[in-house]
Design brief:
This protein is of the alpha/beta class. The chain is built from nine helices and eight strands. The chain binds 2'-deoxycytidine-5'-monophosphate. The site of 2'-deoxycytidine-5'-monophosphate has 14 residues, from α2, α4 and α8.
Length: 233
């Protein structure tokens, strides 16, 4: 099986770019953030505090998650209910980042993510895919862009969906989530030593997608040349 790990901060365009590359390559696209978001949603729905470890741990036994691909699009189910839309709300972004700091939450999701990569060729996006989840991934990319650029992209996206947050508010939320995701003790956001850095500041989404696809194809060609060494299970 071939595994491509794409990590990077919130709003770098990972999901759009990874999805486009997966479609071109015929790989399964896995958005691991959806799993953390679903846990954040479950904790909020239970009326608990996503920032309190005891609250979150108390909720975990009640949570059953599954990822399914319907018409090539990933759908996430929380206790049998499709929550793919609801987990995109801004309050869930914050809750997901909070719950993701707890080691028990990361442990709860670790084997699930590895299992998916054992059964299909995948492009998996997240924060710790190249460092922790799939350290032997064939291709690792760290995708980033400046906080201002990421905030601008997210602001336009939210505005299109009818959101009323100002650019400054979105920028503030981006900075807070960056800080939280990269300063937690458990599997913080960082570039794997062997990851290729792709900074898409000033690139359009199409240009970024083309860059990533080229990086993946180059890496895969290189790996194939090394006597099948690129094949990992
Ligand atoms: O990619 P996203 O914005 O949907 O992720 C939501 C939160 O989940 C993010 O703020 C941090 C956390 N996350 C993580 O800790 N590890 C991952 N592999 C993916 C997401």
């Amino acid at each position: 099986m071939i595994a491509v790990a794409i990590d990077g901060p919130a709003g770098a365009g990972k999901s759009t770019i990874a999805r486009a590359a997966a479609r071109k390559l015929g790989f399964l696209y896995i958005d691991t953030g959806a799993l953390y978001r679903s846990i954040g949603l479950a904790v909020l729905r239970a009326g608990k505090d996503p920032g309190r470890e005891a609250d979150v741990l108390g909720c975990l036994p009640e949570i059953s998650l599954s990822l399914r691909h319907e018409n090539g699009v990933q759908q996430v189910y929380l206790n049998g209910e499709n929550v793919s839309e609801e987990i995109r709300l801004p309050e869930i972004s914050k809750a997901s980042s909070q719950v993701s700091a707890f080691p028990a939450v990361r442990e709860f999701l670790l084997e699930r993510q590895r299992e998916i990569a054992r059964s299909s060729n995948v492009i998996m996006d997240g924060r710790d895919i190249g460092t922790v989840v799939l350290p032997f991934a064939d291709v690792k990319i760290f995708l980033t862009a400046s906080p201002e650029e990421r905030a601008r992209r997210r602001y336009l996206e939210l505005k299109e969906k009818g959101g009323s947050d100002s650019y400054e508010e979105v920028l503030q939320a981006v900075r807070e989530r960056d800080y939280q995701d990269s300063h937690r003790a458990a599997a913080p956001l960082r570039q794997a030593q062997d990851a290729v850095l792709a900074d898409t500041t000033g690139f359009t989404l199409e240009e970024s997608a083309a860059l990533i696809l080229r990086l993946i194809e180059e890496k895969m060609k290189g790996a194939a040349g090394k006597d099948g060494e690129g094949e990992r299970t």
